[in-house]
Specification:
Elements (H helix, E strand, L loop, with lengths): L3 H29 L4 H4 L2 H8 L2 H15 L2 H4 L4 H23 L6 H18 L4
Helix pairs in contact: 1-4, 1-6, 6-7
Length: about 130
């Protein structure tokens, strides 16, 4: 049995890795611009885009983040785990977006972040 602090460390790391993938994904989409539906269904463009270093790295980080969630799933319910990772990934993404991409969010977003963190706290109280 893993210690609770180890489970939470894995959850935080999974969320942080996913958030880094989200930031790289945003940086990649900023360089590509708007994508038309025709481009999306162009297999040559798709393959070229997937193997662009920043896109590939972003996808890899998002995959690793979710794949690593296999560790804590054995210690809690799937709903709890997905809730924790989703909320913490959103929190980390918002913070990284502000620091690295100089985004700014209205106060309502930060209130939502706080409510999300409260949800993580209350849901975690139900863990045995």
């Amino acid at each position: 049995m893993m210690e609770p602090w180890m489970i939470w460390t894995v959850i935080v790391m999974v969320s942080l890795v996913g958030a880094c993938g989200n930031i790289l994904w945003k940086m990649a989409s900023n360089t590509m611009g708007q994508i038309s539906i025709e481009k999306l269904f162009d297999i040559v463009w798709d393959i070229k885009t997937v193997f662009t270093p920043i896109v590939f790295t972003a996808l890899f980080l998002m995959f690793v983040g979710r794949f690593a969630s296999i560790v804590p799933i054995g210690y809690m319910g799937a709903t709890q785990l997905v809730t924790f990772i989703t909320i913490l990934t959103l929190v980390f993404t918002a913070v990284l977006d502000v620091f690295f991409l100089k985004a700014s969010y209205p106060i309502e977003v930060w209130i939502g972040v706080a409510i999300g963190l409260l949800a993580v706290y209350f849901i975690s109280r139900g863990l045995s």
